[in-house]
């Protein structure tokens, strides 16, 4: 079993126009900048991007937005300081936005990866974000029925990986990366270091079964 | 509205006041903005464990310059350190902690708080501005004690403590206590009840800048 | 913060008659034998035991069944070779049984720990184990609505722990232990080694927030 | 029922036959009982990664006597080892792999298989015996390819390949292929279709001990 890929360009080659693409990261931590740059180069467009944020400054998701490659963003917090490209595209009506509470976003992604048909969460009950959704009250508490959120691809940033696709992460760079690897049909990972030896099975955070391709990209943000 | 000069706590004083009410051994989530300052004012002898939604329990102090780890940040995207006893985890686990009732106290900022405990802190009525909710809705449904920390009134003098919120809600009936620069108020089944006034302020003066009735 | 408890007897002291008690383990791996023995000694009775199995031989859960302390078992597989005490109590009508598919059991426990109101799973759809449950068909696939399963207590077996309650596990002894720690109001842990130094935050499997008491119990099964 | 002597594979031969159909690089879950033997017969040059529901991906061979780790077991509660590239995880993650479609093939035993792909392998009609389902129901809904491996008939000669199952179901329409000691059959929209007969057996003889019709 060897899931290693030679370079970033080969890793993102399968992404098609109109694909849904999960992108790991929170703030500046755990974002697969190398894969995003390669995706920009590759040219896929009309993408639905699923991520916690909507990019900041001129890097990462902001680059994809600036280049007009993003048709829709599903995220919890598009208003990071410096998210100028998202704001510009949004105000011009060039990008669709679905705002999802952060825990619901993580749980919807996990549900897709875990083969569940949906879940009841108290989050958002009675608020604007529950409008149009099925709700129910159980033991006096209100819940919203939320659907799983899968994706065609996930771009993942990890610290170390092995050729079986096992991954671990550094500090708060885990964030959405493990659930996104679970939920995508094709999860592509940039690792700081591709280990020749298998990772210690006790320290694996994302088992290789959730990973389809892993590429070494030494740069740490 | 009559302009009244009142004694107002500054942000540091307000953070210190909130910190007084966080018991030893609590698990606490601090929202973005003013609440992040609370961790600097924990009274001696108390150990408080801070949760940050991006996957760390045991957020430590700001790192010394030059020692920052770009992959070790908090929910405000500031560089942090890991305190002794810290743990890292991924997002679905992090929100299981929040929604599942494992965190004791969350301290949040707010646009508006209503006397029935409704909270509005994620969106205004300005539709041209992209809405951004983050983790606020998960926190308020899951954490049993929600402290709100905010200015008592808006910059234009309009009240933030209302009979009913006019902005989109974050959660219904979720706020436990409100700390403002002018007063501390509990949310009770009857409405806002005064806990204390910032020294030097009168109840009448504070009531005058509060839409909802303040019970004593 | 110091969650360490001096001995097993103090650790299980809070368990009351009629309590629901989750017990970690799968087969012979990851079972908190020390805590179970202490619970037997402590005397609590009328218990609802939630575990994958229903004990085997004369140890662990089988001891509680033999002593008549168990009113109900919620598990996926009560038929382990040697589960003679469960079979005896069951045939005599002395213990109630709720059989739950194993993945649904794990997910119901996790849902309780994660504050969810339930979830839709394809598991068991159309079978006897879905009888009386709400179902629905989404995109041609059948799902069963399953409820969260919380407990008053959890008895957990871990490898190493620290005084903050952080835990890691050894090999396949993780199994149900991490989700049960999440779902119980009061999770009690026996660890092989209580570390003076905090565990490495990268290798923590169960963060201390899910743990209420930890006691050193050097014996490895 | 006519007694016919047929050529029947023994358990080892049956395991070897199933192993032929598991492609290189597959993620495979082997059920308790006969299926656990399949791992011993992987053809040279193929790497197959075995998942065990109790929290290991990359189950390796049985440990040498004296080197057993009591906390490293498989779903059958037998001592195992960890193969290179293995990972440990907890139960909700383990069943996410199963239910979420990440495992390619599961090999299961069965009491009965029906021509519509229904599987019965967890409970009989004996109500005095406590039912035990384990992970079978999760596997059959989540794993796209379900191989069943079993004797063609019961000890009393009664058929196990039926028009409709009479025992409680594990899953509806889930079986892909059945490997018995007498034949290999695919489940198709039309019913059981013969893939191959154990050498020396005639279709008529196998049909005679099969309740459902065997298509060719």
TrEMBL record, chains A, C:
Q: Which UniProt keywords apply?
A: Transferase
**Which InterPro entries does this UniProt record tie to the protein?**
3-oxoacid_CoA-transf_A, CoA_trans_fam_I, CoA_transf_BS, NagB/RpiA_transferase-like
Pfam families attached here?
CoA_trans
One GO term in the molecular function aspect is: CoA-transferase activity
Q: Which family does it belong to?
A: Belongs to the 3-oxoacid CoA-transferase subunit A family.
Q: What is the protein name for this chain?
A: 3-oxoadipate CoA-transferase, alpha subunit
């Amino acid at each position: 079993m060897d899931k290693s890929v030679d370079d970033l360009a080969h890793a993102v080659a399968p992404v098609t126009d109109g694909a849904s693409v999960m992108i790991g990261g929170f703030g500046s931590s755990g974002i697969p900048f190398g894969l995003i740059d390669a995706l920009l180069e590759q040219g896929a467009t009309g993408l639905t991007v699923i991520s916690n944020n909507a990019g900041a400054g001129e890097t990462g998701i902001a680059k994809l937005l600036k280049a007009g490659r993003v048709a829709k963003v599903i995220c919890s917090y598009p208003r990071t300081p410096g998210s100028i490209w998202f704001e510009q595209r949004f105000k011009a009506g060039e990008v669709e936005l679905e705002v999802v509470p952060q825990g619901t976003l993580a749980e919807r992604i996990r549900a897709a990866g875990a083969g569940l048909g949906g879940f009841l969460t108290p989050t958002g009950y009675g608020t604007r974000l529950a409008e149009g959704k099925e709700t129910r009250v159980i033991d006096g508490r209100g819940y919203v029925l939320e659907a799983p959120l899968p994706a065609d691809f996930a771009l993942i940033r990890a610290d170390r990986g092995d050729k079986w696709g096992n991954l671990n992460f550094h500090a708060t760079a885990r964030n959405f990366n493990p659930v996104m690897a679970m939920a995508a049909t094709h999860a592509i990972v940039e690792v700081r270091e591709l280990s020749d030896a298998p990772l210690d099975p006790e320290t694996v955070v994302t088992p290789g079964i959730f990973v389809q391709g892993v590429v070494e990209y030494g740069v740490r943000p | 509205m009559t302009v009244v000069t009142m004694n107002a706590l500054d942000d540091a004083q307000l953070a210190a006041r909130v910190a007084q009410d966080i018991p030893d051994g609590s698990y606490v989530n601090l929202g973005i903005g003013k609440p992040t300052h609370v961790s600097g004012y924990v009274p001696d002898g108390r150990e408080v464990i801070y949760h940050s939604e991006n996957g760390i329990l045991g957020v430590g102090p700001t790192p010394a310059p030059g020692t920052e780890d770009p992959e070790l940040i908090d929910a405000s995207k500031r560089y942090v350190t890991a305190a002794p006893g810290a743990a890292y985890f991924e997002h679905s686990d992090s929100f299981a902690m929040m929604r599942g009732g494992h965190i004791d106290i969350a301290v949040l900022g707010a646009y508006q708080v209503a006397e029935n405990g409704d909270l509005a802190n994620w969106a205004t009525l300005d539709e041209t501005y992209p809405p951004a909710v983050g983790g606020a809705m998960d926190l308020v449904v899951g954490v049993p004690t929600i402290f709100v920390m905010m200015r008592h009134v808006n910059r234009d003098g309009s009240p933030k403590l209302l009979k009913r919120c006019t902005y989109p809600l974050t959660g219904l009936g979720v706020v436990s206590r409100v700390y403002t620069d002018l007063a501390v108020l509990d949310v009770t089944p009857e409405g806002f009840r005064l806990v204390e006034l910032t020294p030097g302020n009168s109840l009448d003066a504070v009531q005058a800048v509060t839409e909802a009735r303040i019970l004593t």
